[in-house]
Amino acid sequence: MIQNGYILAIESSCDDTGAAVLYNGKILANKFATQAVHAQYGGVVPELASRAHQRNIVPVVDIALKEAGISAQDLSAIVYTQGPGLMGSLLVGASFGKSMALSLGIPSLGVNHMRGHILSHFAQRPEDTLALPSFPYLSLIVSGGHTLFVLVKGYSDMTILGRSLDDAAGEAFDKSAKMLGLPYPGGPLIDKHAKAGQAVFTFNKPRVANLDMSFSGLKTSILNFLKKEIVSDPNFITENLEDICASIQTSIVEILIEKTKTALEQTEVQDIALAGGVAANSALRQAFLTLAQEKCLSCHIPPFEYCTDNAAMIGIAGYFALKEGISPDVDSLAHPNLPF
Predict the structure, then answer these.
(1) What would the pLDDT profile of 126-154 be if each residue is shown by its tens digit?
(2) Which of 138, 239, 301, 333 shows a CA-CA span of 20 to 30 A to 148?
(3) Considering the entire predicted model, what is its pTM?
(4) Which CATH class is domain 137-301?
(5) In 3D, which of 15, 98, 87 has the Cα closest to residue 335?
(6) Handedness of CA 238, 179, 50, 14 (dihedral sign)
(7) Cβ(159)–Cβ(150) below 8 Å
């Protein structure tokens, strides 16, 4: 059981190589290296991602240790992303983390990437004063690969209430951006252009029972709409880009907020939390805050640094797991479809 000391965290589930250092559960350093190579392909290329991780992981870990003011010999444990994610990318982080831990004679532990997002609100530096969620709380995780509602009763007590049955919300953003001719990653660009537009176009919203969601039908509706408009006006996208982006963003946000209202009716929690890469979207953040105000709830949205994939969230999830007595396992394997 590790309760105190320095922990090194490694995140390599997709295309960002991250390393963080924690001391007694507080973030001392959180560094990462992005991979610009994927932009020219319109999406993440797994083989290129794993090769970039191999190049980046040593310098990123070195920078994180130096920023924290410690050496590798000061570490008490190493945690890393075990899954879900891209197999090649996960293997780089997991192999490095376990090998480094073995060389230092300290324990290592694989962490579920989604649990990292859920607990990202607890990733704070020593000087931070943000209010922390109180258990139980409702967590909406929105990223490029996952969209799900989780009832969080404790650091290790979590229950999935609903999830997207097909595309994730972040995927819907990026694929819609690609239809508009915007470069990858397109989600942030839709957010940028939407600020100058109006949601004057409407798209079909899939109706899914309970707290499950679907974004594939919305994506198809957007594609059919664009095809139809381009036939009569080849310059339609260029001339209406801001309004199209605003309309796409509004549709996605409305689906998420409508489902959040249903989840609140079922759980009756007093705290709601938003996390994941799409939690950086300005419209979704504002809609989530507005909903919390209307319902008189405590709202928690992590700083932008902890929204996208980062090692700090893996570190805090690993810290609580070790603190609660989860046994380190050097034989654990990277798992691209790691169960929640």
Answers:
(1) 999 889 999 999 999 998 889 999 999 99
(2) 333
(3) 0.93
(4) alpha beta
(5) 87
(6) positive
(7) yes
